[in-house]
Amino acid sequence: MRNRGRFLIATLCGLVIAVGVHIVAILASPSFAEQDTFGRVQSTLTADTAQIISAPGGQNTWLPLPDPAVAVAACAFDLRDGPMRVAAKTGALILSFSFHTKTGGVFFAVTDRAAVRGELEIVAMTARQLDEARAAEDENEPSRDVRIVAPEQQGFVIVRVAAPTASLRPQAEEAAKAVSCAADQDVAG
Amino acid sequence: MRGSSTTSLPVTSRSVPTALLILYSLLLALGLGLGSAYQALNGDPPFGSLRVGPWMVWPKLGSPEADPYMRAIIARRGDVPLATGEGITLSARVDSSGRALDSSCSYRIGSVMPAARLWTITLYDEKGQLLVSELGRSSFTSAEIVRDADDRFSLALSRTLQPGNWLQLPPSGSFQAVLRLYDPPGAAGAILSESTFPGIERVGCGA
Q1: Please, are residues B80 and A63 in contact by the beta-carbon 8 Å criterion?
Q2: What is the ipTM of this complex?
Q3: Under a CB-based contact definition with an 8 Å cutoff, are residues A71 and A169 in contact?
């Protein structure tokens, strides 16, 4: 009888600790994931333009459930090298940017409806870089940049360009590839 | 002293050593905890889902308020869900009556759609691979689909060729339909009412 009681207590303890293990595993798993998007797009860190990760048509991509009508391109950023400027010329096709960090998920998204005179331009920076940029700014001529504060220094931008018809797919792919993303020299320097 | 120890000794020798019990509970915790976490990571996010007719949607999946399960599952899949400002993704594994989508049956998707700059309907097999028809088509967009005079559409899903808007189903197995709305006006969550979304109606089954 006494053994059964002790066994029961041990089982209960095990269940309680199991809940803790489960929670820790779920919370920690994004930090340990290597096959996540952040890990896979690190090769785009040095490129000056966004690199296609899923061409329209949806073939040959690691992205799960790709939409064949959409070209998806990515560029990774590391704000320790300075703020990052993402710029695209908008056209007839739907274009959108989404900004992600490794573990924090998405922190900002914008579509070409926010474009000014056919250009969509966003500068991602850390809170500190934003302070520096403001301090360095000419008060009479404030910057017109759209500045977004990133919660982490490392992350990536996803560019999506949608092709309403199959014949527009090559054009969507070109538009996604043409998006420039580079460390912003003006502010960093 | 001696008397009490001799009477207690047989009891302790018959009972399971405490160290073994601790080891047992730790192993149980590790096995159950990691096992359940693994299970959760390979499934759909357990919380925050919304059912709109046959469609399932996780409105917070593409937002900074995504819960830890969503984040872990996104990282595990290597996925980049549509962000809240970009659009919304709905997926269906069942028809409007709740029966699992089966490629031995034929279906009809229609006939209304919420406002969006563009929408697409895409079919995938159970492994998430695109289902490409003999005509090289695996999806319809709002620009491609043919509508009637009332601006309604009807999309046929079957194994054999159908007139009008048609997507081919594989010879066997289950499949899923994914509906994506790009750049819907207003907040994405506000448009999620069943009457504005298309239904998935089973037309018939068998050969």
Answers
A1: yes
A2: 0.88
A3: yes
- Helices B68-77, A2-32: axis angle to 10 degrees equals 60
Q: Which of A14, A62, A158 sits opposite B25 (nearest CB)?
A: A14
Cβ–Cβ under 8 Å, residues B113 and B140:
no
Q: Is A147 helix (H, G, I), strand (E, B) or coil?
A: strand
pLDDT digits 0-9 by tens, B118-157: 999 999 998 888 988 777 888 999 999 999 888 899 999 9
From chain B, the residues in CB contact with A20 under 8 A are 29, 33
- A51, with CB counted inside 10 A (0-12, 13-18, 19+), is middle
- Cα(A49)–Cα(A173) distance, integer angstroms: 13
pLDDT digits (tens, 9 = 90+) for A147-164: 999 999 999 999 999 999
Contacts of B29 in chain A (CB under 8 A): 13-18, 20-21
Structure tokens at B4: 């009490």
